[in-house]
Amino acid sequence: MKRIIFTAILCAAATGVFAQTDSTRASADTVKRTKIRIGISSEGAGFEPKYKNDTTIHQHSKAPGFRFGLTFSRFDLGLTTLIDNGSFTLSPQNQFLRYRSWKSSNVGFDVIQFGYRFNSSFKIYLSGGFDWTLLRLRDNITILPNQPVLTYRQDNIDYSKNRFSSSYLRIPLSFDFRTKADADGNSAHFVFGPDGGFLLNGRVKQISQENGKQKFDDTYHFATFRYGAFARIGYGAWGIFAKYYFNDMFENSPEQKGLKNFSFGITLGW
Questions:
Q1: What does each C-alpha distance from 111 to 45, 79, 116, 269 come to in angstroms?
Q2: Which of these, 65, 85, 152, 171, could form a disulfide with 141 (CB 3.0-4.6 Å)?
Q3: d(CA 140, CA 208)
Q4: If you write DSSP's letter for every residue of 80-123 in order, what string do you get?
Q5: What are φ and ψ of residue 43, in 5° steps?
C-alpha cells in the first residue's frame, strides 16, 4: 500500500505539472489585449491621458461536448471511521473491530472517465478507479477467512501492525460545478454525486516478532457491491472530500448489521 500511495503521489505531481502547462497555454491563447489612445486637450484644464496601460482579460472557456479518456485525478487521502447503527461507538458484538482512528485510512483515485461538459461552469462525468479502506485494529486478533460469518480468533501475540482492509473498484457519478477562473487561473470546485463500488479483495496484514510479516486474502464478508454518496469542495488543485456508504459494510454476517463506513480527508486533482 505504501508503494501504491507513493506511486499515486508521483503521478499526481506529474499530472499537475502537465495540467499547469496546458492551463498556461490555454490562458495564453485566450488573452486579449486592448490599447486605448486618447488625445490631450490643448486647454489643459480638462485634459485626458494620452495612453492607458494594456488591459489583459483572461477568458477561460471550454466548448460543450463529450469527453472520454484516461486520467489520474481525484486522489483521496483521508481517515475512515465506522458508524454502528448511527453511533460512532462500536456495539458490544463489534468491539473486536476496535481500531486506531489516526492510523485507519481511506485511499483512492480515478484512472478513467467519460462525461459531458455543458459549459465552462458545469459538467457531468462517470469515472472509474480504485478505493482502499484500511482499518488498523487495536486488539491482537486474527480475522479468519472462509467462515460462514465474520469470525475472529484471539491471539497470544503482540502485533506491531494488525491491519484489516478492503479494496474496491469505485464508479462515482460526478456533478461538477466550478466558478470562473480568478487572475491566477484557479477556480473553486463543488462536486457531488452517488458512488458505487465492486469488491476486489479483502486482506488481513499482520507484523509480529513471532511470525514476521503475514498476509491473508479473502472476501471476509465485505459487501460485494457498496453504494453511497460523496462530496468534494476545493480551490485550484486541492480540496476536501467526504464519502458515506448507505449499505452495510459486511454482508451475510448478522452480528454486523447496521455497521457502515464514513471517510473524509483531502483530495488532489479534479
A1: 66, 22, 17, 12
A2: 152
A3: 10
A4: EEEEETTBSSPPGGGGGG-B-GGG-EEEEEEEEEEEEEEETTEE
A5: -80, -25
Helices marked H in the chain — which ranges? 2-30
The candidate with the shortest Cα–Cα distance to 228, out of 258, 257, 194, is 194
**C-alpha to C-alpha distance for 134 and 79, rounded to whole angstroms:** 9
Alpha-carbon gap, residue 91 to 106, rounded angstroms: 22
> Can you give the length of the chain in residues?
270
* pLDDT tens track for 104-160: 999 999 999 999 999 999 999 999 999 999 999 999 999 999 999 999 999 999 999
pTM for the full predicted model: 0.79
Is the confidence at residue 236, as pLDDT, over 70?
yes
Cα separations in angstroms, 145 against 93, 127, 138, 227, 239? 18, 32, 19, 24, 38
Find how far residue 52's CA is from the centre of its chain: 46
CA atoms of 74 and 128, how far apart (whole Å) = 11
Residues 59 and 71: their CA atoms lie apart, in Å, by 25
Helix (H) or strand (E) holding 268: strand 259-268
